[in-house]
Design a protein that fits this description.
With 186 residues, the chain is mostly helical. Helices cover 81% and strands 0% of the residues.
Length: 186
């Protein structure tokens, strides 16, 4: 799991930063570009996921631990997080039935389930990753896009149906594609 935590901790801020920057550039067309860096930083540091990762890293680097009751409360929240998240995803996906935009949805699914793990495989081979880290990276890359894609689409009010449908369809397809990746991994 260490490799997966490292992937999430580094990949999330990078991808959110890239996505927020791209969306703010698109929004700034025709208006002043001089406000763009401030808008990007403001959007970045209003994102709870990035703030949580930054605070976690700060606590880790400073060696600050949580008091026992706070740790116990977080443990209870963590145990309920997965069922609550699955319930929330189901509610969101129910609202946006897969329809239209099938070529875009197919591109998102192919990128997530095929291209991303191929790029990860290539880079892992080139960097001579150890077997455990290599397997972890490729399998993580082969996962369907998560609800974060929908959250991001919702933040900017764009492509919500495509994002929700991509999560639904890619999750179903990942049962097959992840099995294939597991068969070809060392």
């Amino acid at each position: 799991m260490t490799s997966n935590f490292a992937i999430v901790a580094l990949h999330t801020p990078f991808c959110y930063g890239l996505g927020i920057t791209a969306m703010e550039i698109a929004r700034a067309r025709g208006s002043g570009w001089h406000h763009l860096p401030g808008k990007v930083l403001s959007a970045m540091f209003r994102n709870m996921l990035i703030l949580a990762i930054a605070l976690g890293m700060a606590f880790n680097l400073l060696g600050i631990g949580l008091p026992g009751p706070a740790e116990d409360a977080l443990t209870m929240v963590a145990h309920t997080a997965l069922p609550a998240a699955l319930f929330a995803v189901g509610g969101v996906l129910r609202r946006y039935q897969p329809e239209g935009d099938f070529r875009v949805i197919a591109m998102v699914c192919a990128t997530s389930l095929l291209l991303h793990p191929i790029v990860t495989w290539t880079m892992g081979t080139a960097l001579d990753l150890g077997t455990d880290a290599f397997r972890s990276a490729v399998v993580t890359a082969a996962m369907a896009p998560g609800i974060n894609g929908y959250v991001f689409a919702n933040m900017y009010g764009r492509a919500k149906r495509v994002a929700a449908s991509s999560v639904l369809i890619a999750t179903a397809l990942s049962i097959l594609t992840v099995w294939v990746w597991l068969q070809v991994l060392p």
